[in-house]
Amino acid sequence: MTDRAERTDAVRFIAATPVLASLDIGRTIAFYVERLGAVAVHAEQGVYGIVALGDIHLHFWACADRRIAEATGCRVAVEGIDTLYLRCQAAGIVHPNAPLHDTAWGTREFAVLDGDGNLITFHQRSDKD
């Protein structure tokens, strides 16, 4: 056990960047910009796209199979989840089976579906801890 602890002490994981499927890079980028207030970082139709939501980035690769996008998702940690939820609710993008709720594992979260079918779950540590 000591050897394992020593090895992990030398490494610090900083962030993860999801790479999601996109059936149309331009349309996908527009969804995140218009509905979530993202900033378009890169958009190359048929190849690759990137948006920034504050300090995080979501990447998108061009994909022709909708089933792949519909089987893909990611989790995004946020602060101000209640405000974000109201914004997403007003935009009509909250997943009908994933409204804002508190979880048994200590988060408050909800999910949206983008235009490609990717499930994005926004979560915040619960104040109940």
How would you describe what is shown here?
The protein starts with a helix and ends with a strand. The chain is of the alpha/beta class. The strands form 2 sheets. Strands 1-4-3-2 form a 4-stranded mixed sheet. Strands 5-8-7-6 form a 4-stranded mixed sheet, covered by helices on one side. It has one domain (2-125): 2,3-Dihydroxybiphenyl 1,2-Dioxygenase, domain 1. A hairpin with a 3-residue loop joins strand 2 (39-44) and strand 3 (48-53). It is 28% helix and 34% strand. The mean pLDDT is 92. The chain has helices at 2-9, 25-36, 66-70, 81-91; strands at 19-22, 39-44, 48-53, 56-62, 73-77, 101-102, 107-113, 119-125.
Question: Nutshell version of this structure?
Answer:
The protein has 4 helices and 8 strands. The chain has helices spanning 2-9, 25-36, 66-70, 81-91; strands at 19-22, 39-44, 48-53, 56-62, 73-77, 101-102, 107-113, 119-125.
Describe the secondary structure blueprint for this structure.
Layout (H helix, E strand, L loop, with lengths): L1 H8 L9 E4 L2 H12 L2 E6 L3 E6 L2 E7 L3 H5 L2 E5 L3 H11 L9 E2 L4 E7 L5 E7 L4
Tell me how many strands there are. Answer: 8
The top level CATH class name: Alpha Beta
Q: What oligomeric state best describes the polypeptide chains here?
A: single chain
User: CATH homologous superfamily - what is it?
Assistant: 2,3-Dihydroxybiphenyl 1,2-Dioxygenase, domain 1
So, CATH architecture? Roll
Summed up, the domain count is 1
Spatial sequence of strands, sheet with the most strands:
1-4-3-2
The number of helical elements comes to: 4
Shape: globular
Order of helices and strands: HEHEEEHEHEEE
Average pLDDT taken over every residue: 92
Distance between the termini: 30 Å
- Low-confidence residue ranges: none
Which fold name corresponds to the CATH topology?
2,3-Dihydroxybiphenyl 1,2-Dioxygenase, domain 1
Report Rg: 17 Å
- Describe the biggest sheet? 4 strands, mixed
Structural class: alpha/beta
Helicity level = 25-40%
